[in-house]
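Re: duplicated header lines in exported structure tokens

Our pipeline writes sequence and tokens for each protein into one text file. With two proteins the header for the second block appears twice in some exports. Here is an export where it did not happen, for reference. First protein block:
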Amino acid sequence: MTSPTWTISELSKEFELTPRTIRFYEDHGILNPAREGRNRVYVSRDRTRLKLALRGKRLGLQLSEICQLIDMYEGPRDTVPQLAHYMSVLSAQRTMLEQQRQDLEETLSEIVQQQAVCETLLKEKTKG
């Protein structure tokens, strides 16, 4: 029994990506498809690595961090150093995102205040 394979079109459709995005991940060594003539053939390893890369992207990780985590995933799993490193990456990302959220909340609050000032001024200007 042969293991499943996918074409670039099939992966594009499954993950709702453009072929160009998949080739981007190839260019950065995340995917390494076999070739059958001019066609790329992806195996389970490639599909898993793509899934992990997309998860890292959703978490807001940088490409270098994603590559590092994927490479760790392919080593012995669930080792203390791997888990500790992953925890530190997640912790740093969480801290950064919480700061961004706080910054956004402050900016939105300021916008609300400025809108209220504008509304008051507009009412005054349209009354007289």
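Second protein block, exported in the same file:
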Amino acid sequence: MLLFATLVRAQEPITKYPEMCDILQQVFCDYISSEAETKYIAGKHGQYIGQLVNNTIYGWGYYLTDDDAQTFGQFRQGKHIFGITMMNGSARVGSEEHYVEYDLSTGKIFKMHNVEGNVKLRYPFIDAEGMKSPYGFYKITYSNGDVYYGETYNGRRHGYGVYYWTNGDFWYGKYVNGYRQGFGALFKPDHKVFYGKWIGDRKVE
């Protein structure tokens, strides 16, 4: 009986990072739809494309620092509250308080951080005792020139990622089994941002 209970626990999904539920996501989107303006800002430390409320970064946005670190996702009162940060050979997915960190040279998770400190991870997040982890963070280039940077599961887009089209558009948000599924934002070359909930290629009204 103990062996069966151990196997069941091992197969249970493990939360890599806490996600905002759909109801709170909708509240976030409803608030910025009435309060935010979209701007491009070039500052002394980098560039920001996204939304502001009362001249403070608040909403969906993208931040590129002078040392080429890139942050995508949701901001509140100038703070990155959830999304992806790619920098110096690693990528973090989650919030500033609770995230997983991937090694971009291998695509594998090597660290989880939460408010209690660093946690040593075991399968299925990292390779251990010869077992292959299904989770990763990779760059995928498609035959038409489009590029995806983000989380994968068994080689498919799954989790949070950024998809770049050859026309200059890019989309940040959540994927499930290869398809957009959940809240995200579409960024246009003219600095316009369209946000909300997507199912596949369709934005839900």
